[in-house]
Amino acid sequence: MIFASELKPGYVIKYNGQLHTIQKYKYNWSGRNEATVTLKMKNIENGSTVDTSMKGGEKLEDVVLDQREMNYIYKNGDYYALMDNETYEQIEVHIDDLGDIVNFLAEEGTVFVSFYEERPVSFSLPKNVTLIVEYTEPGEKGDSTGNPLKPAKLNTGAEVNVPLFVNIGDKIVIDTSNGEYLSRA
To answer: What is the full DSSP assignment across 28-85?
Structure first.
């Protein structure tokens, strides 16, 4: 059991008999009243979202997950094939289950997969990933006031803003939590 005040984004809990992952968490405390927690949760079974508030001292059933490091090996239509790095076991996951991580998932990229009773329920990427710029406009010389950025299309299909000195073919490091450019690789 876990108290509502101890939850964080990414935790998986059992709520109303179904598995939910915490997407957003806000702790509210007033000097006179008991602390409350506002949660936005996603139902793992059907993909629906739930917004709820509860007392900080309320107990919830947390779920023990088995986390494995896997590699993305290929795409087959709307399915992504992932391979366990230790057992070489492969699974196929629908693009909708992966969510926004597909924007920064390149072939042979690492994916952390959380399993509940041998079923994949949660997916995440490392904090930073290295991707290749497939297309961007050339930067103009002399335009260096402030921090000028330009759009760039990556090898995963995602678009991010990069500094003017980044060119086609450059390898760049992206922060997967916010999708921002960090540096050249």
So the answer is: E--SSS--EEEEEEEETTT--EEEEEEETT-EEEE---EEEEEEEEEEETTEEEEEET
Q: Which amino acid is at 183?
A: S
Question: Collapsing DSSP states into helix, strand and coil, what is residue 95?
Answer: helix
- Given phi > 0 = left and psi -120 to 50 = alpha, else beta, which region is 132? beta
DSSP 130: E
Contact 9, 24 (CB under 8 A): yes
Could you tell me the fold of the domain covering 66-124? Answer: OB fold (Dihydrolipoamide Acetyltransferase, E2P) (2.40.50)
- Per DSSP, 145 falls in state S
Close Cβ partners of 138 (under 8 Å, ≥ 6 residues apart):
167
pTM score: 0.74
**Structure confidence by residue, pLDDT tens digits, 122-132:** 888 999 999 99
CATH annotation of 128-184: 2.40.50.140
